[in-house]
Amino acid sequence: MADTDSMIHAQGLRKSFGDFEAVKGIDVDVRRGEAFGFLGPNGAGKSSTMRMIAAVSPVSGGELRVIGLDPDTDGPAVRSRLGVCPQEDTLDTELTVRDNLFVYGRYFGLPRKEVRSRVEELLEFVQLTEKADAMVEDLSGGMKRRLTIARSLINKPDLLLLDEPTTGLDPQARHVVWDRLFRLKQQGVTLVLTTHYMDEAEQLCDRLVVMDKGLIVAEGSPLSLIREHSTREVAELRFGVAAEGDSHEQLAEKVADLGDRVEVLPDRLLVYSNDGEEVIAKVHERGLEPVAVLVRRSTLEDVFLRLTGRTLVD
Asked: Any idea where the ABC transporter domain is (predicted)?
């Protein structure tokens, strides 16, 4: 059973749409003050899980408690303590930046004076004070995203749900959003996010689960997942196939013993080992001459692709 420090407790959680089971019995525990991530390809069940946690989609089976409450019977109480940042910005483009926050705050029944004070605090927090009187339609994508995050914080939530928080943003805007989210975590807000960006998950998440086909296939911190499912380094080898006279598959056989595993991609080979430089030296010793080489550390993306595959799922 969930304890007082548990923000989300799910056991055997299921979600069905007719005969289709989107979430097939998962166990999740999110602790107070954590940044927790759901990773997975399209159709993995992430969004269905998030909607159940947000108390906007009923549970089909299993147990779910959010902030100690049952979303099915205590939906309004759960939603009053949540902040939700959806994947698509749902801002009112006919209102100013400030009025978007003020109107949303009034939805929660907060007194006008308190909402006004909160609006100014949040504008400063997301660095939009100078844009307070601008119309939403005149904002950049990054500014709209920061405004959506500010709006999700108007009720001082204990738990903030973020669905793909930086999709479509340029690198500078992404880093500004990351900075704001990190500051929220420092303030004690529990963050739960879905993301397709592996570097984002590595930056923000204390722990995460990888979902695939409605199931959790791995769980842990980014570092522990890399240690468990990959090697310390990856040597990337690009060959001019015509010059070598071998296909990538044939070349992979020639270097298969140099690492824990070799992955064949259309344009290169990936050799997973704990010493990428040694792999490259031995490749040259065997008379193989790649046209380009790269040694890098293993990332969460290597783990993700190994667990869920490289084939797109619609």
From this structure: 8-238
Burial classification of residue 217, based on how many CB atoms lie within 10 Å of its CB (0-12 exposed, 13-18 middle, 19 or more buried): middle
Distance CA(51)–CA(75), nearest Å, equals 12
The helix/strand count (H/E) of the chain reads as 12, 13
Whole-number average pLDDT of the chain: 92
Domains detected in the chain: 6-227 (3.40.50.300), 231-297 (3.30.70.980)
Cβ 166 vs Cβ 177: under 8 Å: yes
For residue 73, the surrounding DSSP H or E stretch is none
Beta bridge partners of 29: 9
Q: Residue 203 above 60 pLDDT?
A: yes
Q: Which long-range contacts (CB under 8 A, 24 or more apart) does 249-258 make?
A: 251/288, 254/286, 254/288, 255/279, 255/282, 255/283, 255/286, 255/288, 258/282, 258/283
3-state secondary structure of 60: coil
pLDDT score for 57: 96
Which residues 6+ apart lie within 8 Å of 121 measured at CB?
none
- 146 three-class SS: helix
To the question of pTM greater than 0.90 for the whole model, the response is no
User: pLDDT band for position 313 (50/70/90)?
Assistant: very low
Cα 165 to Cα 87: distance, rounded to the nearest angstrom = 6
Torsion from C-alpha of 88, 93, 96, 100, nearest 10 degrees: -50
State how far the alpha carbon of 255 is from the alpha carbons of 201, 248, 252, 294, 298, in Å: 32, 11, 5, 15, 19
| pLDDT at residue 174, rounded to an integer | 87
- 27 three-class SS: strand
The residue whose two tokens read 């303030």 is: 187
